[in-house]
Design goal:
The strands form four sheets. This protein has a five-stranded mixed beta sheet. Strands 14-18-17-15-16 form a five-stranded parallel beta sheet, sandwiched between helices. It starts with a strand and ends in a 10-residue tail after the last helix. The longest helix has 22 residues, at 435-456. It is 34% helix and 18% strand. Helix 5 packs across helix 6 and helix 12 packs across helix 13 (377-387). The chain is α/β, with parallel strands linked by helices.
Length: 503
């Protein structure tokens, strides 16, 4: 429910005018009874109102006055304190039944400093709508931001993120020499990441006129990263913050306020607006002797490749029934036990139970997944104590989508601390499309994955099926492996620095 209130109706609870009807952005209608706190999916029943129906629009001044009369109060479910919400003049509407329970959150939007509309959100879920004039407004929190006198502006995606960030920053300076002397300037976009570029462009002159520095604190997901790239085009000197969670509000909810405050205060980096790098920029980094990477479980492969290095992507191909899964599990177990790494496993062709059994089996030197083999509980428990939360798996089976998987990788790495990623097989990402389309898609994924590995400084291991040789022995009988036999070969092999055969 997201739209404008168009009229008030009686409701079955007995209220004569408690049911407010909203015309949503897509043209549909929904309602909410403020008397009994009930969402009404179809306020007009089965019949939609005619286009000629005269609706009585509620008086904005009356409704705005009613909202202004509400008070700010803490929202424990969001981790937001009363004083932080009061700073932004966020009002909370309580249940008419008990007069205590928070039901609505009212976020004020101003024009020339005066509140002209409110974004209304239910406390219990994500339903929202607008109340007031449908007109251009300032960024959420703009008046508070410019009144601080701070030269630095923080911009978040959502209103709760703005409140949470302000709260975290103020809590962080409490009891220090900066308490009472420094107030952070924090604002939020109106409609989230999707409209970031358009909205910042509209307010760009004002932002430049009041602030010397801009820091972007957008959500830690693909939408947030896209919005960051868009805004940096408008503000090339804008600094980008990698927050320790999905968004600022989630950090506060999870008790990571201090980590959030430290990240936005000290770990912001100016975004690169070009891919050009001059030699002098890498002079010092290159002025070092090459180091060995992490070892493989197999010494010959370590010697051949100089080990596994963070920031690189490794592609593995195998024919049918050649032990590809055994290699995956052995490598994951080795990274956990020998190098102390956390690993992320995306294996859509295998249940998480079996994946965990197989990795524990490699650690213990036992078999835990075969019903014909007696289960050694002591050995399993000892292996599981080593593996435990050092392995992260996806809650899925037979379903894999690259956009979602990419976000999962970011969460597993940035929040879970994983340093190695396994995707087995990557060709599962192209199920259901033609071979030509699959090759194009896998090429895009391979390029994107290489960038993700470098960005997050992780080891990415990608496993691929091999196409059967057109002639000669099959792979399982010693047939030679050629680059074009990789499923999605053109996509994969373009990114290979070298290819080696393991004996």
């Amino acid at each position: 429910m997201a739209g404008s209130c168009i009229e008030k109706l009686p409701h079955t609870c007995g209220s004569s005018d408690g049911l407010q009807v909203f015309q949503n952005n897509e043209g549909s209608y929904s309602g909410y009874c403020f008397a009994c706190d009930t969402y009404v999916q179809s306020p007009y029943g089965t019949e939609m109102p005619s286009k000629n129906r005269k609706v009585v629009t509620r008086d904005h001044s009356t409704e705005l006055a009613e909202i202004k009369a509400c008070r700010s109060m803490a929202l424990p479910s969001r981790g937001l304190k009363e004083w932080a919400l009061a700073h932004f003049n966020v009002k909370v509407g309580v249940s008419e039944q008990d007069g205590i329970t928070p039901v609505f959150r009212y976020y004020p939007y101003t024009r020339d400093g005066a509140p002209v509309r409110y974004k209304v959100k239910l406390v219990a879920d994500k339903k929202m709508w607008w109340v007031g004039e449908k007109a251009d407004t300032e960024l959420f929190g703009w008046q508070q931001a410019i009144s601080t006198g701070s030269p630095r502006l923080y911009i978040t995606e959502g209103e709760d993120d703005a409140v949470a960030l302000y709260q975290a920053l103020m809590d962080n300076i409490a009891g220090t020499q900066w308490e009472g002397k420094m107030v952070p300037a924090v604002v939020s976009l109106t409609n989230g990441a999707g409209g970031a570029k358009k909205e910042i462009a509209k307010h760009l002159s004002l932002i430049r006129g009041h602030f010397k520095e801009v820091r972007l604190v957008f959500d830690n997901d693909e939408h947030g990263r896209e919005a960051t790239r868009d805004v940096v085009q408008l503000i090339p000197k804008a600094q980008v913050v990698a927050i320790p969670g999905k968004d600022a509000n989630e950090c506060v909810i999870q008790g990571r306020s201090k980590a959030l405050a430290v990240a936005v205060s000290f770990n912001a980096k100016e975004a690169k607006t070009t891919r050009l790098i001059w030699g002098q920029e890498v002079h010092e980094a290159a002025r070092t002797k090459a180091e060995w990477g992490l070892s493989y479980p197999w010494q010959k492969l370590t010697d051949l490749t100089r080990g596994m290095r963070f920031g690189e992507t490794y592609y593995w191909g195998a024919g049918v029934k050649m032990g590809k899964s055994e290699l995956v599990n052995a490598l994951a177990a080795h990274l956990i036990t020998e190098h102390g790494l956390k690993v992320f496993m995306a294996k859509p062709e295998e249940t998480n139970k079996k994946t965990y059994q197989l990795i524990c089996g490699k650690v213990a030197g036992k078999v835990f997944h075969d019903p014909t083999v007696e289960f050694d509980f002591d050995a399993y428990d000892k292996a599981s104590a080593l593996v435990g939360n050092n392995v992260c798996m996806l809650n899925l089976y037979q379903r894999l989508d690259w956009r979602d998987l990419r976000d999962d990788i970011h969460v597993a790495v940035q929040q879970g601390g994983c340093k190695a990623v396994f995707i087995d097989p990557i060709t599962n990402l192209s199920n259901g499309i033609s071979s030509g389309e699959a090759n194009t898609l896998l090429q895009e994924i391979a390029q994107d994955l290489a960038a993700v590995a470098m960005e997050l400084n992780i080891i990415a291991n990608i496993f691929c099926h091999l196409k059967a040789p057109e002639s000669g022995n099959p792979h399982e009988r010693g047939g030679k492996v050629l680059s074009h036999q990789f499923a999605g070969s053109r996509a994969m092999m373009r990114l290979l620095l070298s290819a080696s055969k393991i004996y």
